[in-house]
Amino acid sequence: MLPPKSREGRDVEGRALSARIRKTLPGAGHDFVLDAEFSAAPGIAILFGPSGAGKTTLLNCLAGLNTPDTGRVAVSGHVWFDSSTRQNVPVSERHIGYVFQDLALFPHLSVKENVEYGLSRVGARERAERSGSILDSFRVAHLRDRRPSQISGGERQRVALARTLVTDPCLLLLDEPLVALDAQTKGKIVDDLRLWNQSHRIPILYVTHSREEVFALGERVLVLDEGKIIAQGTPHQVMRAPRHETVAQLAGFENIFTATVHAAHEDRGTMTCQLTGSSVQLETPLVRAEVGSVIRVAISAGDILLAAESPVGLSARNVIPGKVVSLTQRDVMVAAEVNCGVRMEVHLTLAARDSLHLDPGRSVWLIIKTHSCHLMAV
Questions:
Q1: Residue 103: pLDDT band by 50, 70, 90 thresholds?
Q2: CATH topology assigned to domain 255-377
Q3: How confident is the model at residue 11 (pLDDT cuts 50, 70, 90)?
Q4: Containing H/E element for 290?
Q5: Distance CA 193, CA 334 (A)
Q6: What are residue 81's phi and psi, to 5 degrees?
Q7: The pLDDT of residue 77
Q8: In this structure, what are the phi and psi dihedrals at residue 279, rounded to the nearest 5 degrees?
Q9: CA-to-CA distance for 101 and 97, rounded, in angstroms?
Q10: Which residues partner with 299 through β-bridges?
Q11: 255-377: same fold as 17-246?
Q12: pTM, whole model, 2 decimals?
């Protein structure tokens, strides 16, 4: 039922997860259907999506806490669940590590006792060696005699990970366990987790609805929406170049428009699209779309440049005149709303705002590179 492993709980090549899960959950208004198929190699994969997308339900199906209606779950070819053969390995035999938001540390036990709790069948000497090693790995060995109430939130997160990983699981599930921590503390904990996993090589699924965590923590991202995986790849591939409108929204693209394909330019790999309800035309990357078809275009506010005078001699294909409608300062950044036939949001620095002498009503030119226009089906 489990992959062959050494005493450290791993095989030489590392483990890979493959899953195909369909699960229907009754709801008050309508049923929720999780219908997801994916694989995860050793390393940290981010499971990203809005609240209610099915992220926790998916983890629970992998762990065996929920039983899928149909599907198959396997680690390195060792099957945990298969509806076609009615195979369903019990939770206790799946050897999964699962860390929740509440961490569930025992308040009456010390850090060392919490970590050793899952090693009751291991001899005293080995138990001490393994707990000592994992406490060192997560930098909490000096806290071994303290209780959870006597350490910080970040330290409790480290202890929770140490307690889970000391049993050498072959899959680690993390359901937003670092949500209450600041970005710097999260990064340090995940760095230690990556270092630990260099020798253990297990797949780690990390649930979040924070796009900042996707970029900072993950090696791969799976985007889940309404029970379906709608995109997967590296964070840069998925979040910087969205091919699905929901992904563009989750990734924080401020400008999303409906457009009609006006002309294709196969010789230069571009096409011209006209934004609906305006005379604005954009030269975009060439995709498979017929002239006259309707598409959606996403442009990040940070990918648009502003000029106070009509620019010349640029490589950028899109130069659009407009007027500043409003300026909103957000910390060290300014969000400018520009009317160019449609309303576009542009982000620039305080210094850029001042050097361009921007004020509401000021005429400007928007400069947009072709490859900053990301096209999506309607």
A1: confident
A2: OB fold (Dihydrolipoamide Acetyltransferase, E2P) (2.40.50)
A3: very low
A4: none
A5: 36
A6: -145, 135
A7: 81
A8: -95, 5
A9: 14
A10: 255
A11: no
A12: 0.86
